[in-house]
Amino acid sequence: MPSLISEEKVGFEIKLLDTCDDGSQTWQNYEIILYVNGKARRFYNQAVDVKQEIVQLVELNDNSAGRFRFNLSERNEISTLQKQLEAFIENPSKQELFFEPADPSFELRIERTRHSDAANQVLNLSEEEYKVYLWVDAGNSTRLMYSWDAEGLRFLVTKTKLLSFTNQFTTV
């Protein structure tokens, strides 16, 4: 499971669950686990709980209501995220990376840290240290609720940690 954890034990994990096919597209269900100082907070939606609430609004028979999920059909979002990470790390002039799945459930932004002199003049972007921002949304499109940024993390990681996170997607 891909995880990005700082030296201070702050970070997140994307835990891949089952896949499902809704007839036209294939989806990879997942949960996000946030870690802060040895404590974990899990974000996922169980279709059983949500389906009871929205069955009057729309006919959903595929058990996908309320799931956090990556699209694997139109554009394989897991592969897309890995390629974006690789391109970002390899291009030192690129300042930031942004990723949000088509079925919104989280937002990931990674920035190169800036080094400045005593007069606060930016000298260059770091190739060894990165700021990571991860915001988990309160809802998603299949849940018929759109709400942004329920909880999030902001932390620093080294290039080694970011490369490890990127490489973990190849084993998925």
In terms of topology, how is this protein built?
Blueprint: E1 3-5, E2 10-21, E3 26-36, E4 39-43, H1 47-54, E5 68-71, H2 77-90, E6 96-99, E7 106-116, E8 122-136, E9 151-158, H3 159-168
Antiparallel strand pairs: 1-2, 2-3, 3-4, 3-5, 6-7, 7-8, 8-9
Please characterize this protein's 3D structure.
- The protein is an alpha+beta fold and 172 residues long.
- It has one domain.
- The chain has three helices and nine strands, in the order ββββαβαββββα.
- It has helices at residues 47-54, 77-90, 159-168, and strands at residues 3-5, 10-21, 26-36, 39-43, 68-71, 96-99, 106-116, 122-136, 151-158.
- Strand 3 (26-36) and strand 4 form a beta hairpin.
- The longest helix has 14 residues, at 77-90.
- The protein is globular.
- Mean pLDDT is 80; it is low at 47-66.
Using only C-alpha atoms, the radius of gyration works out to 18 Å
Tell me, rounded to a whole number, the average pLDDT.
Answer: 80
* Oligomeric state as shown: single chain
Strand proportion: 35-45%
Structural class: alpha+beta
User: Which sequence of SSEs, written as H and E, runs from N to C?
Assistant: EEEEHEHEEEEH
